[in-house]
Structure formats: structure tokens, C-alpha cells
Amino acid sequence: GAFGKLEVKPGTFHVTEEKIGEGEFSSVHKGYLTTDSGMRIPVAVKSLKSGVGMRYKSDFLDEGQVLNGFDHPQIIALKGVVTRSMPLMIMTEYMENGSLDNFLRNNRNGISVLEMVNILYDVASGMAYLQDKGFIHRDLAARNILIDATRHAKIADFGLGRIVEANDPNATYNALGGKIAIKWTAPEAISAKAFSHGSDVWSFGVLMWEVMSYGEAPYWDMTNDAVIRNITNGQRLPQPYGCPDAIYEIMRDCWKHKQEDRPGFKQLKKMLFDLLQKPELLSTA
Ligand code: ATP
Predict the structure, then answer these.
(1) Site to substitute for ligand 1 among 26, 27, 28, most atoms within 8 A of C-beta
(2) Nearest ligand 1 atom, CA 92
(3) Catalytic annotation, pick one of 139, 157, 200, 225
């Protein structure tokens, strides 16, 4: 099969009762996988629900194919797949601290600005790798970043079909019937479906804002239409309380109206690296 050695043999894995995520078409459980070298490693097992149509089956496995093409410490690693029996499964390395948005909300008093910038540096590194590979993510947001036990971040959610849950308040249909998260999406991607590395950079700016706001919802309870009007009029998210000026300036660069005026991910990675070398620039006094 297309997945070769990643096809997991029956009897070499165990899916526990512990449910760590739930979508419209899939659920995620903690599991364990015995590798060829006899190691038993924890994994997150995403299983496609029974009774879903053919289209979702191929979309579901697409995410595994995409992950299989990547090899970078800041991209969630594929550990195994089940494609020859039901339910279909995708197993990825287990990330103890879960999704970044929940991690931020649950640790309001336990995350320093330095740790936040370290997380943003991780995400920029992973995105620079994806940009090198010519891959556009299209759904970069704190909910799609996972945090491991050492508080390092990895990029996740590579479903090509972009199966966004119907009950997701952030989702809206675009003209083609696909769904996009308006509050994270660059104006040209909303209006002309012009997704690019530059539109991923816009989303990265919103992700920076989420991180510096401890997981606050961008644009709070504003409607999607009101957000689009605001952005078109040149308004932008405000500087989060306690966010260093140097970090807010980088966000503003990510939200330049013309995508060619925004920095690339290599540049963002370097800007964040330089700030980490000069922590005095991160003080907010
Ligand atoms: P989709 O967005 O493709 O419809 P989904 O919403 O069911 O799928 P994900 O968004 O990939 O699935 O994961 C759902 C949740 O499961 C995540 O928010 C996270 O809390 C948890 N999760 C997913 N993968 C992992 C992992 N590798 N380690 C730990 N937790 C994970």
C-alpha cells in the first residue's frame, strides 16, 4: 500500500477508552503502538466514524498521506495507519499538553512571555519548513497546534478536505462550499480564495494574538461580517494586555493588506529568534 511500513499490523496497537478529541466525522483516543524495535509508544489515534461517505474516507486518508511527506520536529509525526480494515485510523505522536488554545486557557498564570515567544518560534520554524516544501496550510490557528510534555509546539491538522465541523462557530462556507475560519483568514483568501504562504502568514499573526492573549477568542463575539468590514476599513486586533511592543509590531506586519508586504516564515522565524536572544526587548514595563 501507499503507506508501506506505516500500515499497522493487528495486535501491535491498543486503543484506550480515553477520548481526547471528537469531530463530526472522526474521534481521537489515546492509544499505544508497539514499534518494530519492540518499543511501546503512546499515540493519538484518530478513527473515522462508521457510516460516513466515500468522499470522507479518501479525505481522511489524505491527511495521513500529507503527514507522511513531512519530517520536521515542529510538524506532528505520523506513527502508523490502518487502511485495510474498519475503522480507518491515523496514529500520530502523543502530545501530552493537548491543543495550544486549551493549553493557554488552562495555564493563564503559568506561562511566561518568554515561553509564549518560544512557542511562536516553534510554529514559525514548522511553517518555514512547510513554506520550503510549497505547502499552504490554510487553517493555521491555536486550535490546530499541539503542545508536548516539554511545552514545545507542533503543527497539526492537515486534512486536505478541510472537514470543519458544521457546528464550529468559526466556520463559514465560501463560494465553493468549502468552509474557512473567517477570523483567521486573510482578506484576499476570503474574497478571492487566494490562499498563499502570505495568507498563512496572516493566520500566523492571529495565532500570535491568541498566544499573547492566553487563548482569548480573536475579535471576541463579533460576527464574521463585522470582522470583514473592520478589516476592510483598515482596523486590526488591538495589542493584548502585557504583550511586548516588539511582538505586536510583528503581528501588524503579518496583517499588512497586501500579501506581498507581509514577511515570510523564514523572516518571522529570524525575528522571533532575535527577540529570544535579547529578552530585555520582551519586557513590558
Ligand atoms: P478534523 O479537524 O480533521 O475534523 P478532529 O477535529 O476530529 O478532525 P483534530 O482536530 O486533529 O481532530 O483533533 C481533535 C483534538 O484531539 C485536538 O484538539 C486535540 O485536543 C486532540 N489531539 C489530536 N491529535 C493529538 C495528538 N497527537 N496528541 C494529543 N492530542 C491530540
Answers:
(1) 28
(2) 27
(3) 139
DSSP, res 236: -
Residue 6 cell numbers, joined: 506505516
- Residue 76, ligand 1, Cβ within 6 A: yes
139 lines ligand 1 (CB under 6 A): no
pLDDT tens sequence for the chain (285 residues): 689 999 999 999 999 999 999 988 899 999 999 998 999 999 999 999 988 887 788 889 999 999 999 999 999 999 999 999 999 999 999 999 999 999 999 999 899 999 999 999 999 999 999 999 999 999 999 999 999 999 999 999 997 544 333 344 455 444 444 678 999 999 999 999 899 999 999 999 999 999 999 999 999 999 999 999 999 999 999 999 999 999 999 999 999 999 999 999 999 999 999 999 998 888 865
Burial 232-264 (b: 16+ CB within 10 A, else e): eeeeebebbeebbebbbebbebbbbeebeebbb
